[in-house]
Amino acid sequence: IQPSALLGEVMATVIRTAMADNKLGEIDHHFEFVSGLPVVDEELVCIGIVSKEDRARASDG
Question: What is the top-level taxon of the source organism (predicted)?
Fold first, then answer.
């Protein structure tokens, strides 16, 4: 993939998401496939992102 490639040409089109009221354990299986998940509200508007690193920090704390 060239650095000049457009994002639309390389992006994933199947989007895994999490809800803000999901528990951490409910999203663990997603991290087998992705390094981060958009967190959406009831209207599916993105309100944040949770990453594998965020998940690891939560386990350490």
Answer: Eukaryota
Mapped onto helix, strand or coil, the DSSP state of residue 25 is helix
Amino acid 8 reads G
Distance from the first to the final alpha carbon of the chain: 38
pTM strictly above 0.85: no
Closest Cα to residue 27, out of 18, 36, 35? Answer: 18
Domain 16-60 homologous superfamily, CATH: CBS-domain (3.10.580.10)
Backbone angles phi, psi at 19, to 5 degrees: -100, 150
The conformation of residue 38, written as its DSSP 8-state character, comes to E
Beta pairing partners, 46: 40
